């Protein structure tokens, strides 16, 4: 028996020695709260290593002591078959497993119970000791934040008032200078209320921003309101974060859009260069007139940019959104329904471009309107009359009617101006022809290379209609050439003593004076009387 008793004592000593040696060989990770070590972990838990486990438990316990409503008596222990769990209300603080018990002389349940006692004692004392002091510090910090916010709002009010006075003073000085120069300043003075309102709105927005940014700081001071602070910050940070992430993710699409735009831009420049060369005559294409060059360039440019937009559209942000697609379809339908007449005028403008019925600078007549073409675009054509009246005519109206162009062949073949006079049957037609031709040849603006000619257009009851035709290259000066031609016709006929029977006069004189100016009447002229002969 003594021998067996000694053997048992040796085995127990060996076991205790092994356990102590095991504890010294394994590194422990303490749980330290307020510079006080509560207990030490030697084993891991689940997927966490001892160091990670200790850090997590430390963070959870620090969260507990920072809570303003913390009560150490609410800590509970629940023993299970595998682990013992210490929790605060429904929040798990730590779990003790069987491996933890191997580093202690206590079973797992008793070890967990000792941990619970330590937590209640240490944390209860910590909360009692530090709660009042921390509360006072938090309140003082909150008061400091409130004072700072009030100071910032006061500074904003003072600064906005200074800016307002400075702007108003500068504006009034500017108005005085404009008034001294004779410029109207009534409209500018009406802008002053708008400027002051904008400054007031800007000040109000800045105050709102300051107050909103101060709220998270206030809530973050108190542990129980930290989640509110985080939520308020998230309302500002999350949108900016989303925008920045969207911009970063959109960079590849943006580069693609940039490449497409640059390529299209240089293609348009190339087309414009070719169009300019064609318009200047440096490049000639059969059956393609130089005046077609720039309109064709404009059409090609529109088509290229339209094609570019179609290619870019899938890369635009939100292009795959149903709302975006619906809005674009709605705008397209609205544009189509509301611009049918505009589209018809644009089509007519394109057709007129290639029909070449007129060009800028030509004297034309459209319906009752006659003038020089001063502007020609896809929608309308603008004429300027000899009275400096600008007439705007839709291209659709021009295409559906007839147009008279007086300038097309005026430089080459000459525009024929014609006017009609009526002369009595008593004057030989050869005399009338010579007088009309000499009047035309004496008119400034009538071509000297092409001889005028006369047409007898009618044999009336009491007179003959003679139409004189003269060539002129000055289609844009028709009114002046006509006026000078009529003056010369009067002078030539008066010099020859031939009456112009317009309006109608009968050849029966019955004692009336000849109808020509007195300067042209011969000195020996006598008024005719009735001549009666009898047998």
TrEMBL record:
Presence of the UniProt keyword Membrane in the record: yes
Topological relation to the membrane, as annotated: Multi-pass membrane protein
Pfam family, one: MS_channel_2nd
Domain Mechanosensitive ion channel MscS: 342-407
Keywords, comma-separated and alphabetical: Cell membrane, Membrane, Signal, Transmembrane, Transmembrane helix
Mechanosensitive ion channel MscS C-terminal domain: residues covered: 418-500
Segments passing through the bilayer: 135-156, 201-222, 242-263, 295-316, 328-355
InterPro entries: LSM_dom_sf (IPR010920), MS_channel_1st (IPR049142), MS_channel_C (IPR049278), MscS_archaea/bacteria_type (IPR045275), MscS_beta-dom_sf (IPR023408), MscS_channel_2nd (IPR006685), MscS_channel_C_sf (IPR011066)
Subcellular localization: Cell membrane
Signal peptide: 1-20
Domain (Mechanosensitive ion channel transmembrane helices 2/3): residue spans on this chain: 298-339
Domain of life: Bacteria
Family membership: Belongs to the MscS (TC 1.A.23) family.
The protein's name in its UniProt record: Mechanosensitive ion channel family protein
